[in-house]
Amino acid sequence: MNTADSASARPAEDLRAALRELADPARAEQQRAYLHSDLDHLGVRVPDLRHCVTRTRRVLGAQPGCDVPALAGGLWSAQEGSEKPVYDYRRAAVEILVQYAGALDAADLKNVEALLRQCHTWALVDPLAVHCAGAVALRDAAAGKVLDRWLSDPDFWLRRAALLALLPAIRAGRPDHDRLTRYADALVHEQEFFLRKALGWVLREISTRDPQFVTDWLNRHGSRVAPLTRREALRRLTRGEDRNGG
């Protein structure tokens, strides 16, 4: 074990112990059923989990980008009395990457990609995509090539991640219109529910700042846009019309 691994081992163990103390078997069963999960679940509430990770981050302090994926990876693979990974440990690993996203750059997205390929649920994919990969992409233009590759990946969760990683720039008022157009055009024919939903979500986000972009894109694709995508994309625009009496 190298020095970095030794330095983070005890806080990581303490984090797992803290999560075990917050275990709620009834919530764990509900969570497993809701997510259609085949992992072990402790049933820790997300706000409590985030609090535990924040406490661990404060103990660890600033970490070099090269050490953050190792810390997250240890949590990701940790098991608890069975051969199955523990969902709550994986969610904590995601939160570590989110909270340390400022220490990461485009080169670190290879580690994020490795986890995305094992997520198999929006509950892990979405925070990794938006608050980790998206946060990196907002600072490091080199991340764009990684997202472009994800968009053409056979794994639809990678395609969803590429699209959702555009959200931080949209929310910061710095949308990449060219990339969003390319991604939306590429995904308009998708049959997968989670991609149709994500496309509508991203279009809905940009509609509050650039409604013309959304209406032009929807008009250009017409009936090729899935009803779910169109409904999500127009949700805020329709509400605005309702408030104005339209």
Describe the protein:
The structure is a single chain. The protein has 246 residues and is mainly α. The protein has 2 domains: 1-103, Leucine-rich Repeat Variant, CATH 1.25.10.90; 141-246, Alpha Horseshoe (Leucine-rich Repeat Variant). It has helices spanning 3-21, 25-35, 46-60, 68-77, 87-99, 109-119, 122-139, 143-151, 156-164, 167-171, 177-187, 193-207, 211-221, 227-243. α5 (87-99) runs parallel beside α7 (122-139) and α12 (193-207) runs parallel beside α14. The longest helix has 19 residues, at 3-21. The relative contact order is 0.08. Residues 241-246 have low confidence and may be disordered.
SSE layout and pairing:
Elements: H1 3-21, H2 25-35, H3 46-60, H4 68-77, H5 87-99, H6 109-119, H7 122-139, H8 143-151, H9 156-164, H10 167-171, H11 177-187, H12 193-207, H13 211-221, H14 227-243
CATH class of the largest domain equals Mainly Alpha
Number of domains: 2
Largest sheet, in brief, is: none
CATH topology of the largest domain: Leucine-rich Repeat Variant
- Helix segment count? 14
The CATH architecture category of the largest domain equals: Alpha Horseshoe
Low-confidence stretches: 241-246
Distance between the termini: 65 Å
**Secondary structure tally: strands:** 0
Helix content: over 70%
Shape: globular
Summarize the structure.
With 246 residues, the chain is an all-alpha fold. Helix content is 71%, strand content 0%.
What tags apply to this protein structure?
disordered C terminus; Leucine-rich Repeat Variant; 246 residues; 14 helices; 0% strand; mainly alpha
